[in-house]
Amino acid sequence: MTTPTLGGILRRGALAGVAAGVVASVVAFAVVEPVIARALAVEEARSAGTPAEEPLVGRAMQVAGGMVAAVAVAVCLALVLAVVFATVRHRLPARTDFGRAVLLAFLGFVSFSLVPALKYPANPPAVGDPDTVGARTAQYLSLIAAGVAIAWLAVLVRQVLVERGWSAPLAVTGGVLAGVAGYLALMLIWPGGTVEIPADVPARLIWDFRVASLAELTAMWATMGAVLGLLLTPRTGGPAARADGSTSATGL
């Protein structure tokens, strides 16, 4: 079986990132921005009676900038995903490149988005002490690094079980159990968050923002994996791949 060159995978990854960023931006505009508007209204009510500071950037420009940033972040993550795909393609438990890309995107979603969201849930603008941003960012990034390490460990566990003669379903089950156990351990032992919820912020607003934020990330990762897989599938082992001068990506 052949696969596109590393350059070909990166180009497909960049396209997948653009698609994922656009989808994430649409989801953010549709479900996240309305919640942010409610949070900003809370902030305005909190500061009523005090001289208002003129914002450096208008709200419309902030929304547009956020959508552009979502595309940029998605492209960066998709490029990382493409590099990882080219490196560990032969170790992923799937029969097709589409399945491998979707599985890898799922692992990325769990490591980069789901586990951090469960341990350190996102908060709207009206919540959070600016003086603790640095500490909270460090906690968040360290948790992501640990989550990626656990995902890699789960893949290795599955591979070791296969090499020892375990059947494919049992080896996959072993890898999944190792990953789940690792993530549960992370949830238990990692330091908790330090954000206090102000009394004037409704619980429903907090919940809506967290669900909307997770929906945006889910849409981004799902689109990234599906588009990357679709872009890889037609060229795998077909005439187009040979015409494209395909070689083993892992050999580059």
Automatic annotation (TrEMBL):
InterPro entries: CbtA_put, TAT_signal
Pfam families: CbtA
UniProt keyword terms in alphabetical order: Membrane, Transmembrane, Transmembrane helix
Entry protein name: Cobalt transporter CbtA
Organism of origin: Catenuloplanes atrovinosus
Cross-referenced PROSITE patterns: TAT (PS51318)
Tree of life domain: Bacteria
TM regions (residue ranges): 12-32, 63-86, 98-118, 138-157, 169-191, 211-232
Keyword Transmembrane in annotation: yes
Keyword Membrane: yes
